């Protein structure tokens, strides 16, 4: 039986050290990985890591992710049976897909195109929508100068249009459901939390809203949307 050895267990003890350990919070980046774990049928144990500095900047969490962001995982049953620790949600999705042989095509062309769209989310959708949230809903919304807010509103519109065109005639980004969808859809859904759907023209789109609805209708995703459970 695999054993688990890592400083993080001092703060978040593993009740089932033989299982994959997930350290996360159900933000879009967190939901990416919990959705993958549920969709792939991986046996795992989830630990709630809040976004407070007391958690993400604790020495125990920094020992796993020096970038102090969720999610992160430890798999005691990694490559060649050795323990592996990973952070960065995109890297985790690729690892889980390769571990299980699910949701990432073995055909080289399709595989790299899927990773391409995953990187589109990592480098575009996530960072740009995150800045939109900051300047539209959170502290940046108090700024009188609208330059930053307008920049990210317009960039969100542009990105949504890229996705709208990509989804024309497709149910999923690659046609078949993949880790690209697990990455992209939760970040589109966050527009509701930001209260930004109207300002970015979300309701003028046809394909994107239907896509997000399909994604959250999946039983595994519906479950993953609150893993680990949000605090009461």
Structure commentary:
The protein has 232 residues and is α+β, with helices and mostly antiparallel strands. Helix content is 50%, strand content 8%. It has 9 helices and 4 strands. The protein has helices spanning 28-40, 53-56, 59-62, 89-100, 108-136, 147-166, 179-194, 207-217, 219-224; strands spanning 20-24, 44-48, 72-75, 84-87. The chain has a 4-stranded mixed beta sheet, with helices on one face. Helix 1 links the parallel strand 1 and strand 2. Helix 1 packs antiparallel against helix 7 (179-194), helix 5 (108-136) runs antiparallel to helix 6 and helix 7 (179-194) packs across helix 8 (207-217). The chain starts with 19 loop residues before the first strand and ends in an 8-residue tail after the last helix. Pfam families: GST_C (PF00043), GST_N (PF02798). Keywords: Transferase.
Instruction: Work out the strand percent.
Output: 5-15%
Q: Give a count of the beta strands, DSSP E runs of length 2 or more.
A: 4
Give, in order, the helices and strands.
Answer: EHEHHEEHHHHHH
Q: So how many helices?
A: 9
Low-pLDDT runs: none
Spatial strand sequence of the major β-sheet: 2-1-3-4
Q: What structural category characterises the helix and strand content?
A: alpha+beta
CATH class of the largest domain: Mainly Alpha
Mean pLDDT: 97
Count of all domains: 2
By CATH, the topology of the largest domain is Glutathione S-transferase Yfyf (Class Pi), Chain A, domain 2
- CATH architecture assignment name of the largest domain: Up-down Bundle
As a percent range, the share of helical residues equals 40-55%
Pfam family, one: GST_N
Family: Belongs to the GST superfamily.
Domain GST C-terminal: 107-232
Domain GST N-terminal: 17-104
């Amino acid at each position: 039986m695999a054993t688990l050895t890592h400083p993080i267990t001092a703060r978040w003890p593993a009740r089932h050290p033989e299982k994959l350990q997930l350290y996360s919070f159900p933000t879009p980046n967190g939901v990416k990985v919990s959705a993958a774990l549920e969709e792939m049928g991986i046996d795992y144990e989830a630990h709630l890591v809040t976004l407070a500095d007391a958690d993400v900047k604790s020495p125990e969490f920094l020992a796993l992710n020096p970038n102090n962001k969720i999610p992160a995982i430890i798999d005691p049953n990694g490559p060649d049976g050795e323990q592996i620790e990973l952070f960065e949600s995109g890297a985790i999705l690729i690892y889980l897909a390769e571990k299980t042989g699910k949701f990432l095509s073995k055909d080289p062309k399709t595989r790299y195109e899927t990773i391409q769209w995953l990187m589109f989310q990592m480098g575009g959708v996530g960072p740009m929508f995150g800045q939109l949230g900051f300047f539209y809903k959170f502290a940046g919304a108090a700024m009188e100068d609208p330059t930053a807010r307008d920049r990210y509103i317009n960039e969100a519109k542009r990105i949504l249009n890229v996705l709208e065109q990509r989804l024309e005639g497709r149910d999923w980004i690659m046609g078949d459901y993949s880790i690209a969808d697990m990455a992209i859809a939760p970040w589109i859904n966050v527009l509701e939390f930001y209260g930004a759907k109207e300002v970015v023209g979300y309701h003028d789109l046809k394909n994107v809203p239907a896509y997000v609805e399909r994604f959250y209708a999946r039983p595994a995703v519906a479950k993953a949307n609150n893993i680990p459970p949000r605090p009461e």
